[in-house]
Amino acid sequence: VRTLLGQVAAHGLKIRSVALDSAFDSGETILLLQERRLAYVVPLRGKGSGNNARNRCFEGHHRQVRWTEWTTERSRQRVRTRVVLWKGSRKTLALAFQGGSGERAYHVYRQAERLRQLYRRRFGIETSYRQKNQAQAKTTSKDPVYRLLLEGIAYLLRQVWVVLTEALARRGGQRRDGWVGALTLALLLDWLLDALKKEHPESCSIPLNA
Q: Is the separation of the CB atoms in 44 and 66 below 8 Å?
């Protein structure tokens, strides 16, 4: 994370907040974000099976906001962050967060909700990789340039599908993050394949020399 933030700064980009996945829930990462005075939201994972500070984050009522403290394992540094408990229909999340809207309770709840929404809009890396594989053409070529081209086309097709399904969701009055069953990625790929076959028909005959 430190390296990535350095690369961002080297390109002259300024950021005010970050949304990280649970793999980045270490105390050292949170201390770094606090040092940089960045707003952040990071889902925490439980630690072991005992009654420790991290596991207690998952106890309580829906939307509960509390301070949580623990000591890092390697550097033995003290970490202190706010955590909001979000109990969904499928999963319970304990989101560590920090914002810049003030310390009053009203502002804290507002920033907790704003940062939770930010986390929901994060780029789904694992999902995108799986869906990219659905659109990637198969080849036995060892040419790295050609293989990279197929990778790029697969990502492009997936993004086209994302834009189209979002447009359908808005037209139908559905939530922006809702799945649109009327146009699956597989169906879109079938339409493109049919169009390519019409544009470039394959010869079904093989001439034989007499």
A: no
C-alpha to C-alpha distance for 165 and 148, rounded to whole angstroms: 26
pLDDT at residue 185, rounded to an integer: 85
Top pLDDT among 120 and 16 is at 16
Task: Provide CB contacts within 8 A for 177, sequence distance 6+.
Answer: 120
Q: How far apart are CA 43 and CA 200, in angstroms?
A: 49
Q: Which residues are CB-contacts of 34 (< 8 A; sequence separation ≥ 6)?
A: 81, 98
Residue 50, judged by CB atoms within 10 A of its CB (0-12, 13-18, 19+), counts as exposed
- Two structure tokens written together for 6: 């350095």
Burial string for 154-189 (b: 16+ CB within 10 Å, else e) reads: beebbeebeeebeeebeeeeeeeeeebeebebeebb
Asked if the model's pLDDT at residue 107 lies above 70, the reply is no
Q: In angstroms, rounded to a whole number, what is the distance separating the alpha carbons of residues 7 and 131?
A: 28
For 35, other C-beta atoms within 10 Å of its C-beta total 9
Give the residue-averaged pLDDT of 89-102. 79
Residue 173 β-bridge partners: none
pLDDT of residue 59: 92
CA atoms within 13 A on the CB side of 155: 8
With a cut of 70, say whether residue 66 has pLDDT above it: yes
